[in-house]
Amino acid sequence: MRWAEVWSPAAVAPSPRGVDHDPVLTAPNAITVLRTVLSLALAMAALAHSSPGLLVASYLVYWVGDMADGEVARRMGLETRIGAVFDIVADRANSLTCAACFVALDPRLAIPMAIYVIEFAVVDTMLSLGFLAFEVLGPNDFHGVDLLLWRWNWSRPAKALNTSCIVLACLAGQVGLATVFAVAVLVAKVWSCFRLHLLVRTTAMDVSHERCR
Predict the structure, then answer these.
(1) Where are the domains of the chain?
(2) DSSP codes, the chain
(3) pTM for this structure?
């Protein structure tokens, strides 16, 4: 790369795909902001005071708020792609802070929490953002693309179990059980990523064949 290109890169051709101008200031997004800030504040207080009770409160605010913003979005017809991405990012902020609290309160939980961080912050983030490759509003609507992936990752039972089983085992001080749960969820997420990759490739090939006709 020439030095001039660093300061004056070549113009990028406009994308042929239309861009939706989604509203940002919506009730669901406001709930996401509120639950994220409150949950983070409680998690920081839990760290400062070494308080398991405040950590539990942080998780409750995070989980209840996460259910509330999605429910409000669906009932009010305010689901947007930007809102879905915002929700995904906020979930990681809450979860990673709470994971740090767990390790600070009980260093024995470092191993299951490390596995959980890799699973949720890396693998599941890529998986959840995969909806952007399709014409859906968010992961919750992925049943219209692949029902099996949706059942394993974004149906209500799946979302409840994927994190809660690890968290509850950690709260109970069951390090071995928490590790087993974390590994199991990681394996399921990696499998889901491979399935998503194949799905994206198949869809891209179908689109290419349609354009060649």
Answers:
(1) 23-105, 107-137+148-213
(2) --HHHHHSPPPPPPPSS------SS-HHHHHHHHHHHHHHHHHHHHHHHT-HHHHHHHHHHHHHHHHHHHHHHHHTT---HHHHHHHHHHHHHHHHHHHHHHHHH-GGGHHHHHHHHIIIIIIHHHHHGGGGGTTSSSGGGGGGT-HHHHHHHTSHHHHHHHHHHHHHHHHTT-HHHHHHHHHHHHHHHHHHHHHHHHHHHHHHHHHHHHHH-
(3) 0.85
b/e burial code for range 83-107 (CB count within 10 A of at least 16 → b)? bbbbbbebbbbbbbbbbbbbbebee
How far apart CA 144 and CA 136 sit, in angstroms, is 8
pLDDT digits (tens, 9 = 90+) for 57-88: 999 999 999 999 989 998 988 889 999 999 99
Q: How far apart are CA 18 and CA 21, in angstroms?
A: 10
**pLDDT > 70? residue 16:** no
